[in-house]
Design a protein that fits this description.
transmembrane helix, 0% strand, transmembrane, membrane
């Protein structure tokens, strides 16, 4: 029986797909949970990440690197 090794192209695309799944899920959770985006921006980001499952979340993470809550004012 002959051992067949996968080509470099197959390994590349499997890596892209497997890294895209967590990016997609994390971006959707961040989009849905945040209060800093209004409803129309949320819908646009959800559709964008849905149709561009690897590039969309990367653009989202570059545009919004962190969603830290603003510090509470001292009283």
């Amino acid at each position: 029986m002959e051992l067949v090794t996968p080509g470099i192209g197959l390994i590349f695309w499997q890596t892209v797909i497997l890294s895209g799944i967590p990016l997609f899920l994390i971006s959707w959770i961040m989009i849905l949970v945040t209060n800093r985006l209004d409803a129309t921006h949320k819908i646009v980001w959800l559709i964008g990440t849905l149709f561009l499952p690897v590039i969309g979340p990367l653009i989202f993470f570059i545009k919004y690197p962190s969603f830290k809550k603003p510090a509470a004012p001292l009283t």
